[in-house]
Amino acid sequence: MPELAISTRGLRKTYRTRLGRKVVAVQGLDLDVPIGGVHGFLGPNGSGKTTSIRMLLGLIRADAGSMTVFGRPVPAQLPDVVGRVGAIVESPKFFPAFSGRKNLELLAEAIGAPRKRVGEVLEQTSLGERGKDRYKAYSLGMKQRLAIAATLLKEPDLLIFDEPTNGLDPAGIREIRETMRGLGDQGRTVLVSSHILAEVEQVADTVSIIGHGRLLASGTVAEVIGGSTAGTVKVAVDNHEAATRILTAAGMTVRADGNYLLVDGAEHPADVTRRLAQQELYVSELVPVRADLESVFLELTAGEGL
């Protein structure tokens, strides 16, 4: 088996609320992150993503299970690999009145990184022309890219970003997405946690989907989407009520979607057209709905209350 950037087995973490009730945040999580490329760590808010990342980084202690980073058990041997890891788990603190460059220069001096790295990481995150601007004048997207630049100062092999696009506008989201994709293309391993599945689908090579702190699916994006049983078709027909009755009687599931009907359960899209035509209802438009990570996730978590 090839070496993995991250591997966990049976990872578990529980908390107690102020009222003494035990809450399981992560339960028996088996997670494998291959070396190189972008890995999406996906799940809704409260599914255990941040808790898992904090355990990997030694910020909180696991109740049970094992974890390795580049083959080294953590947290026991975390000091041996921490130099290869850069992470953004919480909002980083920068001096608002200082320029982006000055903030990075101070950080580089503190961690012993070469001063020349400051200019290099500003260019890597497309901040080269704005490095002299004060941090407080940066947009949210620029602030997040400066945080990424800070993690790159020590040239890590593994980068961990927890919900990096939260609060960003579409332009900021695109900038972060392009930055992560560029890092993955350089051969680095990027683990990005997110609850915005459609956004990660555009940048990830591999994904792991979790719910209630346990693994639901993992693999390349194509494998995870391909494993979906979803076979939805979007249908345009004049009489929705009659079409719904006919298709439901044929064992299909029908739901309204604006001016369309979404139909599940047809072995082939032509079955929908044939069933309706037999009753003199004619389809004006029929489009197979491509499975995506969001539809796969909804299928995987159906009935779990997520």
Per DSSP, the total helix count is 11
Q: How many domains in all?
A: 2
The SSE string, one letter per element, is EEEHEEHEHHHEHEHEEHEHEEHEH
Strand order of the largest sheet: 6-7-8-3-9-10
Q: What's the level 1 CATH class of the largest domain?
A: Alpha Beta
- Rounded mean pLDDT score: 88
Radius of gyration: 23 Å
Q: Would you identify the regions where 5 or more consecutive residues have pLDDT less than 50? A: none
CATH superfamily of the largest domain: P-loop containing nucleotide triphosphate hydrolases
- Overall SS class: alpha/beta
Main β-sheet, in a few words?
6 strands, mixed
Bulk shape: globular
Q: Judging by the overall fold, what is the CATH architecture of the largest domain? A: 3-Layer(aba) Sandwich
- Please name the CATH topology of the largest domain: Rossmann fold
Fraction of residues in H or I helices: 25-40%
DSSP strand (E) fraction? 25-35%
**In whole angstroms, how far apart are the ends?**
33 Å
How many strand elements?
14
Topology:
Elements: E1 4-16, E2 22-34, E3 37-42, H1 49-56, E4 64-69, E5 72-73, H2 78-81, E6 85-88, H3 100-111, H4 116-124, H5 140-152, E7 158-162, H6 170-185, E8 189-194, H7 197-201, E9 206-211, E10 214-220, H8 221-226, E11 233-236, H9 240-249, E12 253-257, E13 260-264, H10 269-278, E14 285-288, H11 293-300
Parallel strand pairs: 3-8, 3-9, 6-7, 7-8
Antiparallel strand pairs: 1-2, 1-4, 4-5, 9-10, 11-13, 11-14, 12-13
